[in-house]
Amino acid sequence: MGDSSREVAPKTQGAVLKWQAPIYDLECALVGLRKKFRRETLRHAHLSPGEQILDVGCGTGVLTQWAAEKISSSGRAIGIDPSIPMIALARKKAARAHSQAEFKLGVVERLPFESGHFDGVLSSLMLHHLPAELKRQGLGEIHRVLKPGGRLLAVDFDRPGHPLWWLGVWPQLFMPALVAHIRGEIPNYLRAAGFRQVQAVGRWFSLLTFWEARK
Questions:
Q1: Which pLDDT score is estimated for 68?
Q2: CA 9 to CA 96: how far, in whole Å?
Q3: pLDDT, position 69
Q4: What phi-psi label fits residue 184: left (phi over 0), alpha (psi between -120 and 50 degrees) or beta?
Q5: Distances in whole angstroms, Cα of residue 10 to Cα of each of 103, 118, 132, 140, 198
Q6: Residue 106: closest CA among 66, 79, 139, 137
């Protein structure tokens, strides 16, 4: 699994969650991102046994572990994150659960994998942590490591689907990392990265969108 205490945190211009690691799963549960949300994410991902899957911005590794179960021992699920505390916790949880999921320190703008390696990439609530240029670089890297015909399943903030949400999110229009989301521009970023089949396949609380994008 690796010893994160001897590893060096990679440099990135994106947000890195460190002190949140011990309470991250609780925070997700408190805002409604429980097991049902993870199951919905994997339902849209259409994982199959034997596939090579990458989870970018894996956090504590919950989704990566579930993906590993879906693809079985004949496949491989790898989660990357720039946060040493997150990766350390993900590895501990995987070891306790006897999960086949693997975890590495890494950043989306420099994915440490060869081109055309993965059948699928998962990105769950990661994109909004990246400023605009880093979104472009990161999505370009995701496109690079996917096999021809491979797909990205990304879930993140989108233009609110209910008027009441605007009361809470309009200040985000002044935050560089989130403005593209609130304006509904993420499909444009996906197409600019080289993805040719981009579609919204689901919504969550009228605020998050599940996008499928194919190479």
A1: 97
A2: 24
A3: 96
A4: left
A5: 14, 22, 19, 19, 30
A6: 79
Query: Which H or E run includes 154?
Result: strand 146-157
Nearest to 71 by CA among 95, 93, 102, 32: 102
Mean pLDDT, consecutive 10-residue stretches, the chain (215 aa), reads 67 84 81 87 96 97 97 96 95 96 96 97 95 96 98 93 57 66 93 96 91 97
Round to whole Å and give the CA distance between 23 and 33: 14
What is the Cα–Cα distance from 31 to 29, expressed in whole angstroms?
Answer: 5
The DSSP bridge pattern shows strands 76-81 and 197-204 to be unpaired
Closest CA to 14 of 95, 98, 108, 111: 108
Residue 62 neighbours by CB under 8 Å, 6+ apart = 25, 38, 93
Per-residue tokens: 39: 């199951």
Rounded CA separation 159/178 (Å): 10
For residue 144, the one-letter residue type is: R
Where do the domains of the chain lie, and which CATH numbers do they carry? 15-214 (3.40.50.150)
Separation of CA 46 from chain center: 15
Phi and psi of 183, rounded to 5°? -85, -5
